[in-house]
Each structure stands twice: as structure tokens, then as C-alpha cells.
Design a protein that fits this description.
The protein is built from nine helices and 17 strands. It is an alpha/beta fold. It is globular.
Length: 316
């Protein structure tokens, strides 16, 4: 190596080492307590095979050998996830018995997979029922980003409720990076949840979503403000969405006391910080729309706007 280059590299290494000393909180050195993110993502892939066997992983799955097939994958996940969970618990301050506790939590998690599959079967059906472009369940399972994001969330949520730190967030943030859909594992989401298109959706930690809810791309279910920082931890910061609500693209709903009532429809690009009554329809009032008459070429106001008939209950 050229002496000039070698000298420059040495200077840069010295400068970085000084930075490591100054900002030591963002390095991991001299410690065996660290998670392997790649292993956790691999486990998420194995779990995807377990909840949707035959669609992912091994191409040809026989019903006669499903129990053996599932058992092999379960054994792999139990071993790998237990190890990562132990490290996560140690990192969170569990000084004694982290390994035993991790094995117990992983066993409880894997025991919940049939219930997770029941939820996911309903989510897939909701996607099919709600999307006329869907050709069948196979297309939804194998190609819809919303289903992948919901699957990662539902798995991570079980780990979250079991008190396993870090790993649930790694799972959902991986799904976020793949799909553009950001669902915090702490959110509570009911049955038959449908995300259409999905890109740009954000669902915060304390969000509560009921059954048969449909959300389109670009929707944010967030907190009023994060200026309070860590002082807000543990408080209800995100909205509650009751059963059978539809939220169209670009809508933003904020606040822990904000409740969107059952059966409400939230129009595109709305910004909501107060509760909405059940079965209401909310839309942003558009500027007057003009349209050209095909025969005369004259420009006239939209008839509905002219008559004041928006078709919506709440106009903001």
C-alpha cells in the first residue's frame, strides 16, 4: 500500500477511535450480549413457512408429513429464537436465569402459532373480500405486502406481550423495510384486518384497532406530539379505531383520546385530532371543481358542489 494512503488510513482510524470514546453508547464492544439481527430475520422466514406451509420454503409439502415437517422447523426456531431471546433479556437487565426464561417464553410463543394462524386466515380472507383485483387467496399470501406486514406484526405482538424485548421490534422493522408498512408490535389489532396497497402506513405503539377495519396507503395513526420524549412512555398516545371503520389514503389520525366510532368512513387526506361519531363520514372540503361541458365547451361548477351536496356527514 502506498505510504501516503497508509498514513491517511491510520489518521482516519485514530479519528474514529476518538469518536468511539466520545460516543460510547452507540458501539458494542467487550460484550457477549448482542443480538444477531440476521438470525432473527431468518427465524421470521421460518415462522412464515410454519404459518403458510407450502407457500414458502420447501416447494412440495405433503399433508401426510406435515407434522414431521412442522416439527423440524419448530425445533430450529426453538433453538435459535431461545438463544436470541436470552441475549435480549440479558441486555434488558435480567442477570440470572435469562436462558431458562428465554426457553419458556419461546415455548409459549410457538404454542400460540395456531391462534396466530387463525387471525391470519381471517386477514387473508378480508383482503380477498375487500379487493376486487385479487384473483384468489394464493395471490394474496404470496404477493400482498399488507399480508406480510400483518404476519410479522401478529408474530411480533405475541413476543411483545410475553415481555421479550428488542426482537419484536426487529421483526416489524424488517417488515417495514420490505413493505413500507410500519406497525409497532405493541399495537392491538382485531380480526379481519385489511391493508390495501399499504405503502407509507404508520400504526403507533398504543393504537387500538377493532374488527373488520380497512386501511389504505399513506395512513398515519400517530401521537399528537413526541416533544415529551421518554416522559410519554406508557401513556395512551395513539388513537382507537372501532369496528368496521374504513380509512382512505393519506388520512392522519392523532391522539390517545381520539376515537373513530364504529362504522365510520374517513376520507382521503383528512387530518383528525378529535373523536368521530359512529357511522359518520369525514372528508376534506375541496375547492370548487370545474368541468367542461362536452357540447358547448363552457366551464361549469360541479353540480354536487353547486348544490352543496357533498355526500358526507362531516366536512372539514
Amino acid at each position: 500500500m502506498d505510504n501516503t494512503i497508509a498514513g491517511n488510513i491510520k489518521l482516519m482510524a485514530m479519528s474514529l477511535t476518538k469518536s468511539y470514546r466520545e460516543y460510547g453508547d452507540i458501539i458494542k464492544a467487550d460484550s457477549d450480549i448482542f443480538l444477531n439481527r440476521s438470525h432473527i430475520i431468518e427465524d421470521l422466514g421460518r415462522l412464515q413457512i410454519l404459518v403458510f406451509p407450502g407457500f414458502f420454503g420447501k416447494k412440495h409439502v405433503s399433508r401426510e408429513t406435515l407434522e414431521y415437517y412442522a416439527g423440524n422447523i419448530l425445533e430450529e426456531v426453538q433453538y435459535s429464537l431461545s438463544e436470541q431471546a436470552a441475549r435480549a433479556l440479558e441486555h434488558a437487565g435480567v442477570k440470572c436465569g435469562a436462558g431458562t426464561l428465554a426457553e419458556e417464553r419461546t415455548f409459549q410463543f410457538l404454542s400460540a402459532l395456531p391462534e396466530v394462524r387463525a387471525y391470519l386466515a381471517q386477514d387473508v380472507q378480508a383482503a380477498f373480500d375487500g379487493d376486487p383485483a385479487a384473483s384468489g387467496l394464493d395471490e394474496i399470501i404470496t404477493s400482498y405486502p399488507g399480508i406480510y406486514a400483518i404476519m410479522a406484526y401478529r408474530l411480533a405482538h405475541v413476543l411483545y406481550t410475553l415481555g421479550v424485548p428488542l426482537i419484536p421490534r426487529i421483526m416489524t422493522e424488517h417488515a417495514h423495510s420490505v413493505t413500507g408498512i410500519d406497525i409497532h408490535p405493541g399495537a392491538s389489532i382485531g380480526h379481519y384486518f385489511f391493508i390495501d396497497h399499504g405503502t407509507g402506513i404508520v400504526i403507533g405503539e398504543t393504537t387500538v384497532i377493532g374488527d373488520h377495519v380497512k386501511i389504505y396507503q399513506g395512513v398515519t395513526l400517530g401521537g399528537h406530539s413526541t416533544r415529551g420524549g421518554q416522559s410519554l412512555r406508557g401513556t395512551k398516545r395513539h388513537p382507537t379505531i372501532e369496528d368496521r371503520v374504513t380509512i382512505y389514503s393519506g388520512a392522519s389520525i392523532f391522539g390517545g383520546t381520539t376515537v373513530i366510532g364504529e362504522g365510520a368512513v374517513i376520507g382521503s387526506s383528512t387530518f383528525i385530532t378529535k373523536s368521530v361519531a359512529p357511522h359518520s363520514r369525514v372528508i376534506v372540503k375541496n375547492e370548487e371543481r370545474l368541468q367542461t361541458d362536452a357540447d358547448s365547451g363552457a366551464v361549469a361548477p360541479d353540480a354536487a358542489a353547486e348544490n352543496g351536496d357533498t355526500g358526507w356527514d362531516w366536512v372539514i
